[in-house]
Amino acid sequence: MIKPSTAAQLRRIARRRAAGDQRPRRSRRVGTGRDTGISRLTWVALAASTLPGLAALVALLFTWMSVEQTDKDLQISEQGQITTRYNAAITNLGSTSLDVRLGGIYALQRIMQDSSRDQLTVVSVLSAFVRRHAPVPGSGFKPAEEYRPPADVAAVVAVLGDRSADREVTRDGKPLYRVDLSGVDLRGLEREVGLTEAGLPKRSNFRFANFTGADLRDAGLENFDLFGASLDDANMPNVNLQDTDLRHAFLGGAVLTNARLGAAVMTGADLGGANLHNAHLSRAEETNETSEAASSADLTRAFLKDANLSTADLRGVVLIGANLTDADLAGADLRGADLTRADLSNADLTGAKMSGAKLSGAILEGARGVPPHSGSGSP
Predict the structure, then answer these.
(1) Whole-angstrom distance, CA of residue 238 vs CA of residue 178
(2) Count H helices, E strands: the chain?
(3) Are 356 and 336 spatial neighbours (Cβ–Cβ below 8 Å)?
(4) DSSP state, 314?
(5) pTM strictly above 0.85
(6) 224-263 tens-digit pLDDT
(7) Is 252 in contact with 275 (CB distance < 8 Å)?
(8) Closest CA to 163 of 110, 240, 85
(9) What are 318's strand-pairing partners?
(10) 85 Cβ contact partners less than 8 Å away, ≥ 6 residues apart
(11) Rounded to an integer, what distance in angstroms lies between the CA atom of residue 159 and that of residue 164?
(12) What is the C-alpha to C-alpha distance for residues 138 and 134, in angstroms, rounded to an integer?
């Protein structure tokens, strides 16, 4: 039997143990509260440190939006200025004063240089100006009197020739648009020669231009770029086409009597029915040499069916693979010319000078006046 004093002592011990078990639990609760406080402080510090970055990001976004809006405003302002300049130039173009018209022409040139999207419009307006102010008379080509185009017409031609060609050609090489000077009277036109940065003469850009039925008599078109141009039925006696690019140009029925074509490149040109009587396609006469193939015209694969080349100067001219069927070559000077694989069927070579001409593979069936042993290409 347990004594009362002993039982009381045991109860005290049990209470102490129970109290000791409760104290650690209170301590742990206090510790957990401290961890939560520290974690909150960490998050507050992290948020505070990111605020400058967020502010910078917002500022950058605002700046980008402002710049984009400014660019749009500038574009609208520039287009408005170009429209104002264009309207003023058109007004000047219709003036009765030559000086004012010239100012309008050069103002349109500047617009064309500054705005690629407006080049088509300017080209169309200037082309129409020439067609209106310098048309070939309805009765046909005028007599061959001394003539020069008006100053404003000549200025328009110079401006059109100085425009950028890169803006008008597609990836496949075809033109988006072209200069239309069909049926215009440009007799005696004198080319205004500009210079490149290297100091060389600039080529006047008339690629794929339309000169159908134009009167270009006595005109100076040397060093023009007439690649793919249409010159069908053009009147071009005494025209200067030296160093001109006439590759794949159309000259069917064109009159080129006494024309100067030295060093012109005419690869693939169509001259069917063209009149080249007494034309000069070499520069041998100018240099007093008997043959100068390097500076003679290149008519490789040119179409010259029914062409009149009588008494033409064809010394050293390259006519490889050219179609000269039924061509009139009577009295032509073909010394040193390259007629390799050319088709001379039914051509008239009566009196032609063919010393040194290359006729390897040439078709001579039905040709008249072919000198003996000419097929060997020997003198």
Answers:
(1) 26
(2) 5, 2
(3) yes
(4) -
(5) no
(6) 999 999 999 999 999 999 999 999 999 999 999 999 999 9
(7) no
(8) 110
(9) 298, 338
(10) 107, 110, 111
(11) 10
(12) 12
